[in-house]
Target: Peptide/nickel transport system substrate-binding protein
Amino acid sequence: MKKPLLWFAVLVMSMSAFLAACSGGEKSNTDDKKDNAANDSKPQDGGTMTYALDTEFKGLLNWNFYDTDGDDDIIQLFDDPLIDYDENLKAVPNIASWETEDNQNYTFTFKKGVKWHNGEELTVHDWVFALETIASIGGEHQRWSNVNTIEGAKEFNEGKADAISGLEAVDDYTIKIKFDKARVNNLENVWAYPLSRKEFESVAPKDMAASEQVRSKPVGTGPFKVSKVIPGESVELVRNEEYWKGKPHLEKIIVKVIDSSLTTGELKNGTVDMTPFHPTVLPEVEALNNVEVIRYPGLSYYYVGFKLGTYDGKKVNMNIKKYQNIKLRQAMLYAINREEWVAAFFSGLGKPVNRPLPTAHWIAADNGDMPVQYEFDVEKAKALLDEAGYKDTDADGFREDPNGKEFVVKFSHYATGNPTFEARAKALTQYWEEIGLKTKLQMVDVNLYYDQLEKDDPSLEVFFGGWGTGTDPDPLPLWGDDTVWNYPRWVNEEAQKLLEDAVDISVVGTDTEKRKQLYADWQKIFNEEVPALPILELDEVMAVNERVEGVIFDVSGPNSAHEWWVKQ
Model:
């Protein structure tokens, strides 16, 4: 067997040499949030603010097509959603307001005079265009689960209808949407990001993601306009003088990618004004006199997933046998010393969880209520493997599968310029080898990684992943049996029924506690079957230079950038 875990002590001694890539997920509220909007000084107009990412952004600069962190940091600066969310994650009107009497039929009204950066006025027809674009692509589009609940969307996708019957544009500013049935979260779930018809009407939906309208010349309705894109390196945004909420204070925002080893130095020198950063460098950033570190509970969690099957564009199929044994998966979780691992790689800002939900969401069950607690227990892990038939039959120190054949855990982790990513991945492989599971690690370029996961590339068998759960806590878009984002391809009929019932108004009505109990029951099934090993939930951190004012963070994310300003 392998030697004791020496990586932990080595890492702690050398951690200051490592700088991590920016953390994912959305931002949350805290009593320590930066509330510069309440500052007594009067906002000043002009100046440039520099926002840094220390991982190369993918460059899908449109809400309708992005799929990785980094791109969303950029998009939120130049494109606004129709619906916003307050500090309690409650939907509030932004560009659109709404009315409903039955949670199935909604009437939305747009503000007049909101313009795209190309000068065209935003109308409800741009929203219809976005919804039909997603529906035409169907299950291969990551937002299909946010559209397929509209009446007629599936028929449109299948070519049985020329339009989505549940969409009725009354006039340029009014639209009626009928969903296939009443749900508690139809409003929160519906895709609320329009797409400019003028920009995309001549582009086939399947070609849109690769078009210059997404990659190099994106337009939005937000406070800043994209003026220059250097792929993977930087984006220059200039003030939108005609912004519908009022002229922004800043003249320009520069988003640039920096080498992770330079993060602390650039913050210290003032060449970076704002940046998310990984908890591993928290002590270094906190020591800077010119920077405030904002800490707040996150809506993200990390996990190790297993490819249990494939996705055919419509349904998830559990048709890959290698990791189907529940005891094997449970053993691999018992084997991980998550407290130790989190302390080493996340500076204690994260904490282990036994469910696939962050605590900040109201549907999250208490960790202590989960049937299995998965405390670090090497002997328990070994016993489970013995029971499942994974035994070392040739005395080489590693276990064979129940048929006596070689068994190798093929583990994948995304790769960036951050050296701690490979270090933390290797630490996980060492935990598994300690219980006799031979493990092979491959680091995959981050820009290929999630494409391979979505396409069920057979080279990815066991994988490291993370989710920012967003404002709607409903797990169906991530764990339902008809979504591409169910990366482990897990199917459980009882679990699926619980998730469907939890949003069915005929089942739960307006009873929040009943809905919460259904989600708790779902979490218990997940906890026992562990189609993915929940590792930790993460607090978020953001570094902000002291010259930046007007920035507010709450559970729904940052306030609009048109309120930000810098002291001249």
Observations:
- The radius of gyration is 24 Å.
- Residues 43-78+222-290+546-567 form a domain with the D-Maltodextrin-Binding Protein; domain 2 fold (CATH 3.40.190.10).
- Residues 1-39 have pLDDT under 50 and may be disordered.
